Amino acid sequence: QVQLVESGGGLVQPGGSLRLSCVISGRTFSGYGMGWFRQAPGKEREFVAVISRTGGIYYADFVKGRFTIFRDQAKSLVFLQMNSLEPEDTAVYYCGASPAVIPTAPADVEYWGQGTQVTVSS
User: Fold this and answer.
1) What is the pLDDT of residues 92-115, one digit of tens each?
2) 62-97: pLDDT as tens digits
3) 9, 40, 11: which is closest to 122 by C-alpha?
4) What is the DSSP letter of 101?
5) Closest by alpha carbon to 29, among 114, 97, 112?
6) Which of 37, 21, 14, 22 is nearest to 91 (CA)?
7) Where are the beta strands (DSSP E) in the chain?
8) Separation of alpha carbons 85 and 89, rounded Å
9) 63 in helix, strand or coil?
10) What distance in Å separates the CA atoms of residue 106 and residue 122, rounded to the nearest whole number?
């Protein structure tokens, strides 16, 4: 059974940092890109960052150099380091696995985690 499990969310003040983790189990994802998406209340799920199956790294424009996505050597973990967080970053963050060449749309994702809540507030 394929499982993606996120962790690391929480409440943080504006300007603070969080590191999200996603552990993957149940199959090999060597032919898959791994990425992060988010969904705020009342909004559609949106792309945040991805490491494609060929190793390319892509970010949404709103990241503006604040977030970094990286993957461990065994490729069973993917992380999202988030710095300079803003209240607008408040959302549920989802880890996803996709076989697409450059998966930047939720429709590209084949496997999803359950999400982890990130709240940025003073």
Assistant:
1) 999 999 999 899 999 999 999 999
2) 998 999 999 986 768 999 999 999 999 999 999 999
3) 11
4) S
5) 97
6) 37
7) 3-7, 10-12, 18-25, 33-39, 46-51, 57-59, 67-71, 77-82, 91-98, 111-112, 116-120
8) 6
9) helix
10) 30
